[in-house]
Amino acid sequence: MLTFDQVSKSYPGGFIALDRISFELAKGEMAFLTGHSGAGKSTLLKLISLIERPTSGRVLINNVDLKRIRRSQVPFIRRDIGIIFQNHRLLMEHTVFDNVALPLVIEGFTGKEMVKRVHAALDKVGLLDKVRCLPETLSGGEQQRVGIARAVVNKPPLLLADEPTGNLDPELSKDIMRVFEAFNQVGVSVLIATHDHSLVARMRYRTLTLKQGKMINDGLLQYEEPL
Amino acid sequence: MSILFSGRAAGASSKQIHPLQRWLMFWVQHLRQCIGSLGELWRTPLASLMTIAVLGVSLTLPTTLHLLVKNVQSISGSFTQAAEISFFIKDDASDTQISTLVTMLSADPDIEQVRFISKSDAMAEFQQVSGFGQALQLLDDNPLPNVILVLPRHTQPQAAEQLRRRIEQERIVDFGKLDIAWLERLDAILLLMRQAVLAIALLLLTAVLLIIGNTIRLSIINKKEEIEVMKLVGATDAFIQRPFLYTGVWFGVFGGLLAFLVVELMVWWLEGAIGQITDLYQSHFTLMTMSFSEFLALLLLSVLLGLAGSYISVSRHIHAIEPSGP
């Protein structure tokens, strides 16, 4: 599904954000991406969502080399990737419905089909009763779940999440993770970037750990008791 | 259309949708964005009104000047009689010679109309008009010459002058007189006015273009966050641009309507004053207002300006906004 082949990314000024990263995420696999802030997690996600391009190496999604994708094609790539943001990036002046419907509107859905899909997505994250609310009237956890609903509403085969539990308490974090697990169980590949070590350890999924741009661990993390 | 997953039926094409229906949906989308941007204008009423007012006022001036030129032209058009050429006939010409010349001139393709005024007719008219009636009867013989009045087909000064020179060659014609100096002046003034209107219009329209461009630029900057999110969930530049372009079009529509209303109001207000003046000159002059096609042209121009102004802005700024990170 997702392949990184000797990918490096350096920024002007010589800062090396990623240093020869190689890994593969199988179809329907769920994995964590951990590391301290500044270790290169965000850069890695940016390379997948084509916000940035690698300095060297290849990034492939479903065996399509992203190097081949022209600028005008980028929007169509992003429609196949559901992205969940740390600060959820909802449109605050629009209702929950409008926010979740945005990817569908962009793809040209109208009418009943759109309403059906939006309601299905909101139902999955348990927010069907908030469909007419404005995001600012929701709690942090609910806003994050609206963000998840927006990411999955057009059923992308690949889901990326950047610190989805960043600002949430452990109870809410667990809820959010369960939502991701549910999507994973229906065959969606999920890659979650987080620095919440204890959460990662508890969940027992494959974990990719970055440190200063290098991959230092690929596999299960040993369970560590939170301090 | 999915580039990555050929098997994945992406977007609206996932359903078996008839091409006609998809074509309809495309226009429904357009309509939705069109109405949506009208709602956007409504959300910031003061800013929108200001932009519309600027547009309206800027369009009012050239439109008014255009109407002014149009009216002056219509007045000068009614003065074609002034391009009449008077040919004074030599005293020794016989009546047959004169009537031959009149017949000849009537057949001339360059001449619209020929009128012969005999010396006795001229005398009678002069007696009537001048008020010297009694005094003139004291004269032994009639000092006035026979006159042939010619109305040229082409009333432009050069053409009339050429005609005068040609007919002056006739043996019995003493000389011809064409009073064209003032006509030439009027023509020159009209040309100057028309060019001034064009120059002012061009300047104002450029200003309108820049104003709309700037307004749209500001609203793009205000929505930077929203545009980034839209780009992140896969919106094409064209999709993001459309509401802004429609906003420009709406500015154009309302600005054009405002200009039309202001001009009509001005004409209505001036009509009374102009009526008084023309009454004093004992002429029947009615102010020409905008025709329907001129109204449509004004509206079209205004809409095109709105569209062009927003396009200039949109094509530069929306491309430049890129999401900085997930």
Q: What this model shows, in words?
A:
The complex is a heterodimer of chains A (227) and B (326). Chain A is α/β, with parallel strands linked by helices and 227 residues long. Chain A has a domain at 2-90 and 157-217: P-loop containing nucleotide triphosphate hydrolases (Rossmann fold), CATH 3.40.50.300. Chain A has helices spanning 41-48, 74-78, 96-107, 111-124, 140-152, 170-185, 197-203; strands spanning 2-10, 16-25, 30-34, 56-61, 64-65, 81-84, 158-162, 189-193, 206-211, 214-219. The longest helix of chain A has 16 residues, at 170-185. Chain B folds into two domains: 32-77 and 185-320, no CATH class; 80-179, Alpha-Beta Plaits (2-Layer Sandwich), CATH 3.30.70.3040. In chain B, helix 1 packs across helix 9 (237-280), helix 2 packs antiparallel against helix 7 and helix 7 runs antiparallel to helix 9 (237-280). Chain B contains ten helices and four strands; from the N terminus they run ααβαβααβαβαααα. Chain B is of the alpha+beta class and 326 residues long. Mean pLDDT of chain B is 82; it is low at 10-15. Chain B has helices at residues 19-43, 45-77, 95-107, 119-130, 133-137, 157-168, 181-222, 224-232, 237-280, 292-320; strands at 85-89, 111-117, 147-152, 173-178. The interface between A and B is medium-sized, with 37 and 33 residues.
Please name the defining characteristics of this protein:
heterodimer; A: 227 residues; alpha/beta; Rossmann fold; 6-stranded mixed sheet; 4-stranded antiparallel sheet; 7 helices; globular; B: 326 residues; alpha+beta; Alpha-Beta Plaits; 10 helices; elongated; ATP hydrolysis activity (chain A); transmembrane transporter activity (chain A); ATP binding (chain A); nucleotide-binding (chain A); ABC_transpr_LolD-like (chain A)
